[in-house]
Amino acid sequence: MSCQHHLMSSLIPLTSHGTIAVDLSVCTVQCVCPQECGAMLAGRLLRVWRLADTAAIGLLRGLRPGPVGRPAQPRLAAPAAVRRASSFQHRTHTCGQLRAKDAGRSVSLCGWLQFKRMGKFITLRDGYGVTQLILPDEDRRLSELVDSLPLESVLQVTGAVRLRPDGQQNQDMKTGDIEVVAHDITVLNKPERELPFNAKEALRLQYRYLDLRHTELQENLRRRSQMVAEIREYLVRDHDFVDIETPTLFRRTPGGAQEFVVPTRSPGQFYSLVQSPQQFKQLLVIGGLDRYFQIARCYRDEGARPDRQPEFTQVDLELGFTSQQEVQALVEGMLHRCWPQELVTPFPRITFSQAMTQYGTDKPDVRFKWRLVTVTRALRSCGLDVLEKQLNGPEGAAVALVVPDGARHHSRAVQAQHARMAEQAGLAGVSALPADGAGRLGGRLAAPLGADTCSRLAAAAGAGPGDLLLLAAGPEGAARTLLGRLRTHMADTLEEAGVTVRRAGPHFLWVVDFPLFVREEGRLVSAHHPFTRPHAEDEHIVYSDPEQARSQHFDLVLNGWEVGGGSMRIHEPALQRHVLQTVLGEDTAPLQHLLDALASGAPPHGGIALGLDRLVALAAGAPSIRDVIAFPKSSDGRDLMAGAPSDISREEYELYHLKKPS
């Protein structure tokens, strides 16, 4: 069996798939494999491109497989002999590209002067790596030139590659086996003052264009670009999605997050910047475009948030004629394609109720197994009036968390932090009962409880010798939420002390069956957004007891972070109107266009939005999403580099019918 695809490359071995033999004269590829490959060949070739590091194999991505025996039409691509990272630029190679095989080659490099020593050695850095340059002893002109230059000067250097002398190789550098003997240096630019490198975050954001020169940020942004390219490839090429841009200037959406308001020249008329393309993507499906996606720019005016951005990017998807399980399978395949490590699919699933009961949060970190345990029965009739009053109050319960080997890590500083967290949760406190070597519980609460009650409590919670039992009592929801926060805090505390708690690698998790509505300040609001479809088993409850209805919303969680949220949508106009008017008490006039569209024959549809910034940060191991965004805002939403937001002129106030604050 042979399969032909229009390609340009060389002989490529494929693990467990035979060998691809390439005939460059006819630009075809024959797959010689022990089994019929059919459509699988294209997927295997795409996989090769991810694993290989040659420009020729990179061209595999630029060609579309055609029918057997007939070559397909290639997309425009640079010749294989041209290295992609240096095409259309002054250089022949990047500063991270040269290897021992390049010895004897004449090259031209461009970059920043990073280091100089003894008037003989310099290192040149660009966005791809660092190369060591040698200034010849016989050419004092070059030495004098370099001595006069400040660091971070922009240079173009021509020279010859040679192997480093034995014993002088640097295994910490990708280019550590070679050095370039400089023949000529052209100064393209030089800084006028000392530059603020290695500064605190505020200064780094002020001089972001300098901060971007750091290797970590360079690698993060290139990883982001690669992940987006893989996502587009998966959706457009593999699954025939249509990439559609939707407006960012829209009108206010009832029941959503706070939106940025944009004034217009018409008095009293304002746009809102979209918090998501939610309505547009539903309208696209109603219009017959039932496989939509975009890399969407979104905006939310949520005030100062330490690790949120007022403008952010999401991978936005919507499908018609689909189900929740099919949307989830699509996302799993997409992440399997773009993630830097191998992922095991399908991802595990847990209900919202299970997540809150077992972990005290709807975005649990399942890299470690600590779970919350209800111990109310073990503490009934314990004789402590304060405790029994909490258990007998509204929704009263006692919940415990056992921290394995945590007794010796429960310092006074940790206790003080736990007390502050309990106060923030609205609870009287959290009790700590460390277990000794024999498994007997201690702490301030142990003596008043008595040995028998402590024994029952330890058995109910599963505490053993050396463990730390944390106990919270009061309204069950508040107690579980507090212990969920303490679970994360104690995991961090132990790991800071050198104890391995979390398993390595990405651990994705689907959380499903969220409430459809929640009560805030005495009224029902949408738990996510008002277009979410009720759970199939609970649709009738929306009309009789909406607060008890579950939804077809689902979140994707990675290592304790929510990275995506999706749902099936309401596609019947009567149900949508009932939710908006009767349940939520919203004015439907701003959404009349959507109601009219639903009444025009809307198919069942659903979708998801994945937070690209958070996904890339977790894939790159970055401590903050600001480290994977080229020009992020500060924690209080300001652009420290350009000084935005800023005032406008008097004429602009008048143009937009605004009153300048006094």
Q: What would your notes on this structure say?
A:
The chain is of the alpha+beta class and 662 residues long. Among the domains are: 4-62, no CATH class; 86-189, Nucleic acid-binding proteins (OB fold (Dihydrolipoamide Acetyltransferase, E2P), Beta Barrel); 368-496, 2-Layer Sandwich (Gyrase A, domain 2), CATH 3.30.1360; 507-596, no CATH class. The chain has 20 helices and 26 strands. It has an 8-stranded mixed beta sheet, with helices on both faces. β24 (553-558) and β25 (561-568) form a beta hairpin. α6 (215-238) packs across α19 (612-620), α9 (352-359) packs across α15 and α12 (412-424) runs antiparallel to α15. It starts with a strand and ends in a 7-residue tail after the last helix. Belongs to the class-II aminoacyl-tRNA synthetase family. Type 1 subfamily. Keywords: Aminoacyl-tRNA synthetase, ATP-binding, Ligase, Nucleotide-binding, Protein biosynthesis, Signal.
